[in-house]
Amino acid sequence: MTAPVQTGAQPQATVPGATRIHAAFARAAQEGRAAFIPFMTAGYPTASAFPAVADALLTQADLLEVGIPYSDPLGDGPTIQRASEQALGGGTSTRHTLQLVKDLRARHDTPVVIMTYVNPIYAVGPREFMRLAQDAGVDGLILPDLPPDQDLEIADLAAEHGIAVTFLIAPTSTPERVKLVAEACTGFLYAVSVTGVTGTREGAALGEVPAMLALARQYARVPVAVGFGVKDAETAHQVAQVADGVVVGSAFINAVQHGQDVGALAAGIAEGCRKD
């Protein structure tokens, strides 16, 4: 198994959300594992059923990623797209998502990060969105379609409201792009393991991931998590050997869809996040 790549840079928590996120990664590292970051679309399978699903994930999670349902999620595969459509059809909006997160944070201390495209933020209004997110207890934002060099307003407003930001890199990212993104992240850096969308890969062969992480760690002062294609304990274990965190999404959407025990699946994947 490939040894994890180490970085001499230390995370620099500049906002409260970043402090909590970095602490979660640090606790996992101290316990000899990568941080486990499950994902669930807000309002899926229904608004009333979502809290129980999220609670089950939070029993195992180091961080929970909650997706705002969006009608045009370009980075998501068919599984998460269908979940978004179902949640939107059930009435889950951006504001409702933030209320669901607020309810979760009232019951759990685990950090929560929101994955959202920029359009939902602008639909609410960036400043109002950040105010609502801060009030809900959101610790970080994952922004898959926001290049950090094109719109500083959202990142600046997030910092103003105590919220960390996470941007994405992929195997196709140039060294210049990796440097730009890595230096802009204040929560964690999200490394996409393959080119494409979520939930479409059969396995988690590491491929270019170790080299991508080695490059990212030359510049990042935050933990580096890997997502896309992780679906079970075995694939999580592969990724955990090289990453600080493991993100799993479509597997949980599928489990909910088929009436499977989400808590049991989360427990198994969390165990797989241990480092050799």
Q: Evaluate the radius of gyration.
A: 17 Å
Q: What is the ordering of alpha helices and beta strands? A: HEHEHHEHHEHEEHEHEHEHH
- Indicate the structural class: alpha/beta
**Which fold name fills CATH's third level, the topology?**
TIM Barrel
How many strands, what sense, and barrel or not for the largest sheet? 9 strands, parallel
The tally of strands reads 9
According to CATH, the homologous superfamily is Aldolase class I
What sort of overall outline do the alpha carbons produce when their principal axes are compared? Answer: globular
Q: Span from first to last CA? A: 8 Å
Subunit structure: Tetramer of two alpha and two beta chains.
Enzyme class: lyase
Function: The alpha subunit is responsible for the aldol cleavage of indoleglycerol phosphate to indole and glyceraldehyde 3-phosphate.
Active site: 65 (proton acceptor), 76 (proton acceptor)
Task: Sum this structure up briefly.
This protein is α/β, with parallel strands linked by helices. It has 12 helices and 9 strands.
Description:
This protein is an alpha/beta fold and 276 residues long. The chain has one domain: TIM Barrel (Alpha-Beta Barrel). Helix content is 44%, strand content 13%. It has 12 helices and 9 strands. A 9-stranded parallel β-sheet has the order 5-4-3-2-1-9-8-7-6. Helix 4 (94-107) packs parallel to helix 6. The longest helix has 15 residues, at 16-30.
